[in-house]
Amino acid sequence: MQNSLDKIVVGNLNFSYGKNQILSGISFELERGDLLGLMGSNGSGKTTLIRSLLGFLNASYDEYSLFGSKFKNLSISQISKLISYVPQAHNLAFNYTLFEVVSMGKKPHFGGVFGFSKADIKSVYAAMDMVGILQLKDRNFSELSGGQKQLGLIARAIAQNSEVMILDEPTSALDFSNQILIWKVMNTISKSGKIIIVCSHEPNHIFWFATKVFAIKDGKSLAFGKNDIINEILLEQIYGANYKICSLANQKIIYYSIN
């Protein structure tokens, strides 16, 4: 059993916009090596939860700690070393090459001095190579396709080498091949001892790759546990009826039944 120095602990997290309660009583624990799939329909509170965990929103909670440190006591610099973030989309105001964008992931480790060592450059190249975009390193970021930009943001988070990666719909702009590639990359990274939290509308991807699942509905916890908690009853609670699970070539698949 792991101690608090190896965990993320969230206890009774709540968030409201004025009198409008968005999140209520959210609690879970994650350990090193966990890849959490965050499931929920549109408007369920997934992105609000992610923004709360990042400190972008002023949520209240009984406990929120990262590896034994209370989140509220961490500086912005400390948080940026612990957590990397991949948003759904990101448009840069200035012209940077893809290499420069991915290199921004190294900034939290410079201690205020912007400069690259050979090891830094090597790790940036490795991050781009991991997601298949190294050949685009000198391209202007603004000229890339939506999918290529998203791969660049994922590479930036990988280069950041944080203990926790939080990704909000990271594969929504990608083709099927790159979607699977990114999930495989996240799976590999989590197995190195990192914690990864992924919000996704693709339940099959969560089913196939996540080690833990957190389902949210109307801002409240619907289910939390290993990925085998995904069943037809839970899918109906999240998305509505007619979702089925079958086995094909020894692989479980979620599908929508039109009958």
TrEMBL record:
Keywords on record: ATP-binding, Nucleotide-binding, Transport
Domain ABC transporter: 8-243
GO molecular-function term, one example from the UniProt record: ATP binding
Cross-referenced Gene3D superfamilies: P-loop containing nucleotide triphosphate hydrolases
SMART domains assigned: AAA
Domain of life from the UniProt record: Bacteria
Protein's name according to its UniProt entry: ABC transporter ATP-binding protein
Organism: Campylobacter porcelli
